[in-house]
C-alpha cells in the first residue's frame, strides 16, 4: 500500500510536511519530521494502528482515504481460472477446494540450502 497523505492534506489546506506535523501534534501524535516527509512522498512507512487513528482525526479523513492500493504489475494479473479460496462454499457439481501455491518471484531455480 502507498500513502496518499499529500492529497488528503491538500483538501485541508496543508501544503507542507511541517504543517501536517503541526496538525498531527494537535491530536497527540508526535512522529518525527522525517517520518512525516516519508508519508508525504508516498514511501511505505510503518505506522501503529492507534497512530493511524490519530492521523485520521487530525486530517478529518478515513483510513481508506490515506491508503492507496498499488496497481498490479503487468505480469501479476489476477488469474481467471475459477480457483476459490480454501474453505469457500462449494456449488453443486463442483469438486473439492484445493489450495493453490503462489508463483515465485524469482525466475531461476531454487538455491540449495547451506551444507
Question: What's the structural blueprint in terms of helices and strands?
Answer:
Layout (H helix, E strand, L loop, with lengths): L1 E2 L1 H7 L5 H10 L6 H9 L7 H11 L3 H4 E2 L47
Antiparallel strand pairs: 1-2
Description:
- By secondary structure, the protein is mainly alpha-helical.
- The protein is 36% helix and 3% strand.
- The protein has helices at residues 5-11, 17-26, 33-41, 49-59, 63-66, and strands spanning 2-3, 67-68.
- It has a two-stranded antiparallel sheet with strand order 1-2.
- It is elongated and about 55 Å long.
- The two termini are 38 Å apart.
- The model has no long low-confidence stretch (mean pLDDT 78).
What's the short story on this structure?
The chain has 115 residues and is mainly α.
Which keywords apply here?
single chain; 115 residues; mainly alpha; two-stranded antiparallel ribbon; 3% strand
Number of helices: 5
Low-confidence stretches: none
- Which sheet architecture does the biggest sheet show? 2 strands, antiparallel
Secondary-structure content class? mainly alpha
Distance between the termini: 38 Å
Strand order of the biggest β-sheet: 1-2
SSE run:
EHHHHHE
Instruction: Give the overall pLDDT as a whole number.
Output: 78
Helix content: 25-40%
Radius of gyration from CA coordinates: 21 Å
Strand content: under 5%
Amino acid at each position: 500500500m502507498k500513502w496518499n497523505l499529500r492529497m488528503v492534506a491538500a483538501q485541508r489546506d496543508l501544503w507542507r510536511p511541517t504543517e501536517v506535523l503541526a496538525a498531527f501534534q494537535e491530536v497527540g501524535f508526535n512522529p518525527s519530521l522525517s517520518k512525516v516527509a516519508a508519508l508525504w512522498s508516498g514511501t511505505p512507512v510503518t505506522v501503529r494502528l492507534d497512530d493511524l487513528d490519530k492521523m485520521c482525526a487530525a486530517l478529518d479523513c478515513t483510513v481508506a482515504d490515506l491508503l492507496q492500493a498499488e496497481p498490479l504489475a503487468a505480469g501479476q494479473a489476477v488469474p481467471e481460472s475459477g480457483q476459490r479460496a480454501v474453505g469457500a462454499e462449494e456449488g453443486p457439481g463442483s469438486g473439492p477446494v484445493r489450495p493453490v501455491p503462489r508463483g515465485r518471484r524469482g525466475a531461476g531455480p531454487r538455491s540449495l540450502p547451506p551444507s
